[in-house]
Amino acid sequence: MRRTTAGLAGALAVALVASGCALGSGASVSAVTEQEFANELAIPPLAESRVVDGVRTFTLTAQEGTTSFAPATPEGVETRTWGFDGSHLGPTLRAERGERVAVEVTNGLDEPTSVHWHGMHLPAAMDGGPHQEVAPGETWRPTWEIDQPAATLWYHPHPHGATEEHVYRGLAGLFLLDDDASRAADLPQTYGVDDVPVIVQDKAFDDAGQLRLDDSGREPGTLGGTVTANGTVGAFHEVTTERVRLRLLNGSTARTYQLGFEDRDMQLVATDGGLLDQPLTLEQVRLAPGERAEVVVTLQPGDTTRLHSFEADLGDVVVPFAMGGNDAFDVLELRAADELAPSPEPAWEPSVHAPDDALHEADATVTRTFELDDRRINGRRMDMERIDEVVTVGSTEVWEVRSIAPMPHSFHVHDVQFRVLSVDGDAPPPELAGPKDTVYLEPNRTYRLLMRFEDYTDPHVPYMFHCHMLRHEDEGMMGQLVVVEPGDEDAVGRVEHAGHAGH
Ligand code: C2O
Ligand code: CU
Ligand code: CU
Q1: What are phi and psi of 376, to 5 degrees?
Q2: Phi–psi pair at 473, nearest 5 degrees
Q3: Is the N or C terminus of the chain more exposed, i.e. has fewer CB atoms within 10 Å?
């Protein structure tokens, strides 16, 4: 281990200082404020699109605005926020497998940003990472074909060194994909009614009610004392059906949630990259920054229950309470009507594309290892000009990823959905059984991830892999990979910045 004892002690000290006197007052006291659940859950609108020459075309404009977070902030206070096509968060984009899409992304901010399609399989030049920055006033026009199973994906900025701030101020939205299997599934499907997006984020406010980005040096980044769902503080949703599907996204920059209900189980139906083979009954699902889960909850007429975040099991981390591990709080209240329309028992047929999408460990020809420590991956900080990994197109690979210090990390790979083969040699827990693009790394455990880089070669434009705790990413815990044709490995080296290209 490269980290010195002094380094570790330093991190511990920082964590202790940052947590104030929580030790003395009892480490199990939650640092998240309980709210009254009196605000109707905001539902992000479905984005409008037009089909131009067979291309489903969306527009998104990143802009400044103000938002009320009452009662977390004083009545009448408007908090300065950023949003897409509005003051906070963004509309839900939705497209079908096989469709070609385009997005006209306009930057209405005073500084460069970018928009990354998290979980999407697409060419690197369309990925919206730090090499595709959009200058203020400019418009960027990525286009690609949707070629992956139905899933709950999301989009957010990825400007080098400033991703935490841009997401925290409010730039994030969902990108839902549908396919034949998902449309035919016995699952709640009415958007905003029984198929409900739930973007979970925490915020910290200063005395004036403005967003405060914690710069105390606290290890995980900003842990806010106010938890929001789709930007709503103390949110409730009126349920009119026997079952409701919640599309959960951890859109926080640092906090890991352990979501469930105190009085009932739920059925996990999908992870980051799409539907599981079959529904799985479980009590809680842990979601690190960037991860998603779709769960189906059953209600009785007149029921009221709350989506709760339990004390998160962060694994072997130093001072868990300073990482938010002792925080427990409600996130969203579900209020069932006195009469509920029937909902089917969750069930679905595998997608017709499933044989092509399946990953087989026997196909793996390359194994790579990644050690996360401090703000480095394999001892290196992110360098925009350095390609860290060269992947030959078509190959199936095993990535062995391990956090070697007792700090939480959330590991994300662009372009692919992977399967978690094992965690320290054991079968992964149920919530990691489906397609994934982001995974929480319990410290000092090895996660073996199986992935395939199918197509879209480009020796000059890299995809990213990084920690999705966004301060860690911004401070260097990120690397770059290119996908090349066999024999093209020598063409790698010069990184092209497609950004600032404007029109
Ligand atoms: Cu959610 Cu590299 O991103
Ligand atoms: Cu991503
Ligand atoms: Cu990290």
Answers
A1: -125, 155
A2: -60, -50
A3: C
- pLDDT value at position 243? 98
Place 39 in a pLDDT band, splitting at 50, 70 and 90.
Answer: very high
Atom of ligand 1 nearest to the CA of 290: 1
Alpha carbon of 86 to ligand 1 centroid (Å): 22
Supply the pTM of this predicted model.
0.93
Cβ(436)–Cβ(286) below 8 Å: no
Q: Name the token pair of 101.
A: 């899409």
Report the DSSP pairing between strands 195-203 and 243-250: parallel
Task: Give residue-wise pLDDT tens across range 74-119.
Answer: 989 999 999 999 999 999 999 999 999 999 999 999 999 999 999 9
Q: Return the ligand number nearest the Cα of 414.
A: 2
Q: What pLDDT shows up at residue 219?
A: 84
Going from the Cα of 116 to the center of ligand 1, the distance in angstroms, rounded, reads 7
Domains in the chain with CATH codes: 43-184 (2.60.40.420), 195-341 (2.60.40.420), 354-491 (2.60.40.420)
* pLDDT the model gives residue 498: 58
Collapsed DSSP state (helix, strand, coil) of residue 340: strand
**Cα(115)–Cα(128) distance, integer angstroms:** 5
Block residue for tokens 């980005």: 213
Average pLDDT over residues 385-401: 97
CA distances from 29 to 24, 218, 324, 477 (A): 10, 18, 10, 31
Q: How many CB atoms lie within 10 A of CB 429?
A: 12
At 181, list the tokens. 């299997």
Residues with CB under 6 A from ligand 1: 116, 118, 156, 158, 290, 412, 414, 464, 466, 468
Amino acid at 496: E
d(CA 148, CA 354): 10
Q: Nearest Cα to 291, choosing from 447, 441, 439, 117?
A: 439
Alpha carbon nearest to ligand 1 atom 3, residue: 118
Q: What is the chain's mean pLDDT, rounded?
A: 92
